[in-house]
Write a structure and sequence with these properties.
It is built from 4 helices and 7 strands. It is α+β, with helices and mostly antiparallel strands and 160 residues long. Helix 1 crosses helix 2.
Length: 160
Protein backbone atom coordinates (compact mmCIF):
# COMPACT_ATOMS: atom_id res chain seq x y z
CA UNK A 1 0.00 0.00 0.00
CA UNK A 2 1.22 3.46 -0.91
CA UNK A 3 0.01 6.57 0.92
CA UNK A 4 0.47 9.91 -0.77
CA UNK A 5 -0.95 13.43 -0.73
CA UNK A 6 -4.30 13.67 -2.44
CA UNK A 7 -4.54 15.67 -5.63
CA UNK A 8 -7.43 17.36 -7.43
CA UNK A 9 -7.36 14.50 -9.93
CA UNK A 10 -8.22 12.10 -7.06
CA UNK A 11 -11.53 13.85 -6.37
CA UNK A 12 -13.73 11.24 -8.09
CA UNK A 13 -12.07 8.36 -6.21
CA UNK A 14 -12.22 10.23 -2.90
CA UNK A 15 -15.87 11.07 -3.51
CA UNK A 16 -16.58 7.39 -4.18
CA UNK A 17 -15.23 6.59 -0.71
CA UNK A 18 -16.57 9.45 1.38
CA UNK A 19 -20.08 9.89 -0.06
CA UNK A 20 -21.37 6.41 0.86
CA UNK A 21 -20.04 6.84 4.41
CA UNK A 22 -21.52 10.31 4.78
CA UNK A 23 -24.87 9.22 3.29
CA UNK A 24 -25.05 6.22 5.65
CA UNK A 25 -25.05 8.68 8.55
CA UNK A 26 -23.66 6.14 11.02
CA UNK A 27 -20.12 7.36 11.79
CA UNK A 28 -19.68 11.05 10.93
CA UNK A 29 -21.66 14.01 12.23
CA UNK A 30 -22.21 15.34 8.72
CA UNK A 31 -25.42 15.97 6.82
CA UNK A 32 -26.25 12.64 5.12
CA UNK A 33 -27.82 14.64 2.28
CA UNK A 34 -24.59 16.55 1.65
CA UNK A 35 -23.86 17.10 -2.03
CA UNK A 36 -20.78 15.64 -3.65
CA UNK A 37 -19.32 19.14 -4.08
CA UNK A 38 -19.89 19.97 -0.41
CA UNK A 39 -18.45 16.63 0.73
CA UNK A 40 -15.31 17.16 -1.32
CA UNK A 41 -15.02 20.77 -0.13
CA UNK A 42 -15.22 19.50 3.46
CA UNK A 43 -12.74 16.63 3.01
CA UNK A 44 -10.26 18.47 0.80
CA UNK A 45 -10.73 21.97 2.23
CA UNK A 46 -7.88 24.47 2.54
CA UNK A 47 -7.75 23.90 6.31
CA UNK A 48 -6.71 20.27 5.77
CA UNK A 49 -4.02 18.18 4.14
CA UNK A 50 -5.65 15.23 2.41
CA UNK A 51 -3.98 11.88 1.72
CA UNK A 52 -4.99 8.77 -0.20
CA UNK A 53 -4.02 5.13 0.28
CA UNK A 54 -3.69 3.18 -2.92
CA UNK A 55 -2.81 -0.29 -4.08
CA UNK A 56 -2.11 -1.06 -7.74
CA UNK A 57 -3.15 2.53 -8.61
CA UNK A 58 -6.60 2.02 -6.98
CA UNK A 59 -7.48 4.42 -4.16
CA UNK A 60 -8.79 2.37 -1.23
CA UNK A 61 -8.85 4.96 1.53
CA UNK A 62 -8.39 8.60 2.36
CA UNK A 63 -7.64 10.72 5.38
CA UNK A 64 -7.15 14.35 6.26
CA UNK A 65 -5.06 16.00 8.94
CA UNK A 66 -5.37 19.48 10.38
CA UNK A 67 -4.71 21.34 13.61
CA UNK A 68 -7.38 20.45 16.14
CA UNK A 69 -7.55 24.05 17.38
CA UNK A 70 -6.01 27.39 16.50
CA UNK A 71 -3.43 29.35 18.47
CA UNK A 72 -2.37 27.61 21.66
CA UNK A 73 -4.01 24.34 20.53
CA UNK A 74 -2.24 24.06 17.16
CA UNK A 75 0.22 21.47 18.50
CA UNK A 76 -2.59 18.87 18.63
CA UNK A 77 -3.62 17.36 15.31
CA UNK A 78 -7.02 16.08 14.24
CA UNK A 79 -7.74 13.55 11.50
CA UNK A 80 -10.63 11.91 9.72
CA UNK A 81 -10.35 8.56 7.96
CA UNK A 82 -12.53 6.69 5.50
CA UNK A 83 -11.93 3.41 3.71
CA UNK A 84 -13.62 2.01 0.65
CA UNK A 85 -16.24 -0.61 1.47
CA UNK A 86 -14.35 -2.99 -0.83
CA UNK A 87 -11.22 -2.64 1.30
CA UNK A 88 -12.72 -3.23 4.76
CA UNK A 89 -10.62 -5.48 6.96
CA UNK A 90 -7.44 -5.19 4.89
CA UNK A 91 -5.48 -2.90 7.22
CA UNK A 92 -6.02 0.25 5.17
CA UNK A 93 -7.33 2.31 8.11
CA UNK A 94 -4.51 1.08 10.36
CA UNK A 95 -1.94 2.00 7.72
CA UNK A 96 -3.47 5.44 7.25
CA UNK A 97 -3.54 6.10 11.00
CA UNK A 98 0.07 5.00 11.41
CA UNK A 99 1.03 7.21 8.45
CA UNK A 100 -0.89 10.15 9.91
CA UNK A 101 0.86 9.82 13.27
CA UNK A 102 4.28 9.75 11.58
CA UNK A 103 3.32 12.69 9.39
CA UNK A 104 1.97 14.62 12.38
CA UNK A 105 5.23 14.10 14.27
CA UNK A 106 7.21 15.29 11.24
CA UNK A 107 5.12 18.49 11.20
CA UNK A 108 5.74 19.19 14.87
CA UNK A 109 2.42 18.03 16.30
CA UNK A 110 2.72 16.69 19.84
CA UNK A 111 -0.59 14.82 20.04
CA UNK A 112 -3.58 13.65 18.04
CA UNK A 113 -7.20 14.01 19.07
CA UNK A 114 -10.38 12.55 17.62
CA UNK A 115 -13.23 14.82 18.71
CA UNK A 116 -16.29 12.73 17.94
CA UNK A 117 -15.95 8.95 17.67
CA UNK A 118 -19.41 7.44 17.56
CA UNK A 119 -19.70 4.76 20.26
CA UNK A 120 -21.36 2.27 17.90
CA UNK A 121 -18.35 2.46 15.53
CA UNK A 122 -16.77 -0.49 17.33
CA UNK A 123 -14.24 -1.35 14.60
CA UNK A 124 -12.81 2.17 14.76
CA UNK A 125 -12.78 2.18 18.56
CA UNK A 126 -10.86 -1.10 18.67
CA UNK A 127 -8.41 0.13 16.05
CA UNK A 128 -7.75 3.49 17.69
CA UNK A 129 -7.29 1.85 21.09
CA UNK A 130 -4.89 -0.72 19.61
CA UNK A 131 -2.85 2.22 18.31
CA UNK A 132 -2.60 3.81 21.75
CA UNK A 133 -5.54 6.22 21.76
CA UNK A 134 -7.44 6.60 25.01
CA UNK A 135 -10.99 7.71 25.63
CA UNK A 136 -10.62 11.02 27.47
CA UNK A 137 -14.20 12.19 27.26
CA UNK A 138 -17.74 11.03 26.65
CA UNK A 139 -20.50 13.13 25.11
CA UNK A 140 -23.71 11.47 26.31
CA UNK A 141 -26.24 10.76 23.55
CA UNK A 142 -24.55 13.34 21.31
CA UNK A 143 -25.07 11.42 18.03
CA UNK A 144 -28.30 10.30 16.45
CA UNK A 145 -27.47 7.00 14.78
CA UNK A 146 -29.83 5.99 11.94
CA UNK A 147 -30.68 2.61 13.51
CA UNK A 148 -29.40 2.68 17.11
CA UNK A 149 -30.97 6.03 18.02
CA UNK A 150 -29.14 8.42 20.30
CA UNK A 151 -25.70 7.13 21.25
CA UNK A 152 -22.62 8.52 22.97
CA UNK A 153 -19.72 10.10 21.12
CA UNK A 154 -16.22 9.73 22.49
CA UNK A 155 -13.20 12.03 22.53
CA UNK A 156 -10.00 10.06 21.98
CA UNK A 157 -6.45 11.32 22.48
CA UNK A 158 -2.91 10.15 22.05
CA UNK A 159 0.40 11.88 22.64
CA UNK A 160 2.85 11.58 19.80
Amino acid sequence: MKIRKGEASDAAAISGIILPTICAGATYALDPDMSEADALAYWMGPDKETFVAEEDAVILGTYYIRPNQAGGGRHVSNCGYMTSATATGRGIARGMCEHSMDYARSKGYRAMQFNFVVRTNERALRLWQSLGFEVVGRLPLAFRHPTAGYVDALVMYRQL
